[in-house]
């Protein structure tokens, strides 16, 4: 069997598993199978390797200083804080409607940001920043597309999730094939194992303890 170490060897392994190397139309669709599998990874995979930290500068001189662009690979936010302020205070999340209500209630007076919301491909801050601030975002990012990042961290960590994921996406083209169920089980198992690994690698520093709110340890 082909050892999977990069995009080319993954493609070779997919062809080997499909056992239809003479079907040039099916083989030509393999990049699409990989792309569709990656879309599924981004919806269903939650591991620490998907977490990333980025900083951005708030420019009070811009026409809309309350809006800051999100990173191109952004999926969901975990934390936002003002890294340029003493103590690096975290910003609390509010919905867009709550942020509008806050602005109305305070007459939109500029100040140090306290809240944020995600709006399209930007973060909206409130109050409107009154000075230059550096914000630090910890967010869940998308898996780097293998076609442009060869190999990426996920292929190195879990070649099986890539293999079974791509094979499963071939199902609409190979129609009735008894192997599809096996590939589906292989994909589900690999994805579950990865998510469990993500939990244990994040929370294995020690036993969890319950602390009463406000209690100092």
Topology pattern, helix = H, strand = E: HHHEEEEHEEEHHHH
Rough shape?
elongated
| Helical percentage | 40-55%
Distance between the termini: 55 Å
Q: What count of structural domains?
A: 2
Helix/strand/pairing category: alpha+beta
Radius of gyration (Å): 23 Å
Instruction: Write out the strand line-up for the largest beta sheet, numbering strands in chain order.
Output: 2-6-5-4
Main beta sheet strand tally, sense and closure: 4 strands, mixed
Mean pLDDT: 91
How large is the count of helical segments?
8
What's the assembly state of these chains? single chain
Uncertain segments are none
Total strands: the figure is 7
Strand fraction equals: 15-25%
Give an account of the 3D structure:
With 217 residues, the chain is of the alpha+beta class. It folds into two domains: 84 residues, no CATH class; 92 residues, no CATH class. Helix content is 40%, strand content 19%. It has eight helices and seven strands; from the N terminus they run H-H-H-E-E-E-E-H-E-E-E-H-H-H-H. The strands form two sheets. The protein has a four-stranded mixed beta sheet with strand order 2-6-5-4. Strand 4, helix 4 and strand 5 form a beta-alpha-beta unit. Helix 1 packs across helix 6, helix 3 packs across helix 6 and helix 6 runs antiparallel to helix 8. The longest helix has 25 residues. The protein is elongated and about 70 Å long. The chain starts with 6 loop residues before the first helix and ends in a 14-residue tail after the last helix.
